[in-house]
């Protein structure tokens, strides 16, 4: 038995659950799809709220798309991935595993996001002397130096002195590093 039916709504179709599955209740109205190939009839995959999926994009397994998220192109969302907020996924992007994409994220091209990907967009700060970013999960890149967050917490003061930072700049970067530590990965 199919898990959903579709009802024409403008240029797209609204999905309506035909049975209870996952956290979806029978009769619950979901988001919009361009055609039935966009959403698998198997697993607990679901599109809710104002989210929509079009073109050749597909959601399957236990993946969830909600809020105002937009999936298009040949994108594939599967596994336990969760896309929400105003996120836009397009092109040949692949989102899988336990990845969570939300906020105003925009992922396109041949991007692959899987496993335990960041639950928040990577942080980027333009400091007085160098930029800081968590370009790699659990790490901070300051200027051209990529080290773990823990390493920076222990060593930023000495590195600042070696790099001839002023006391005020060392304090500034110490606060940035503590922000990265507080936010996490």
Explain what the structure shows.
The protein has helices at residues 149-162, 167-183, and strands at residues 4-9, 12-17, 29-33, 46-47, 52-53, 58-59, 64-65, 70-71, 76-77, 82-83, 88-89, 94-95, 100-101, 106-107, 112-113, 124-126, 131-133, 139-142, 145-148. α1 (149-162) packs antiparallel against α2 (167-183). It folds into two domains: 4-113, UDP N-Acetylglucosamine Acyltransferase, domain 1; 124-183, no CATH class. The two termini are 42 Å apart. The protein is an alpha/beta fold and 185 residues long. The mean pLDDT is 87.
CA-to-CA gap between the ends? 42 Å
Helix count from the secondary structure assignment: 2
What are the segments in which pLDDT stays under 50 over at least 5 consecutive residues? none
Overall structural domain count: 2
Coarse structural class: alpha/beta
- CATH class bucket of the largest domain: Mainly Beta
Percent of residues in beta strands? Answer: 25-35%
User: In terms of quaternary structure, what is this?
Assistant: single chain
Strand order of the largest sheet: 1-2-3-5-8-11-14
What radius of gyration results from the CA coordinates? Answer: 21 Å
Number of strands: 19
Average pLDDT figure? 87
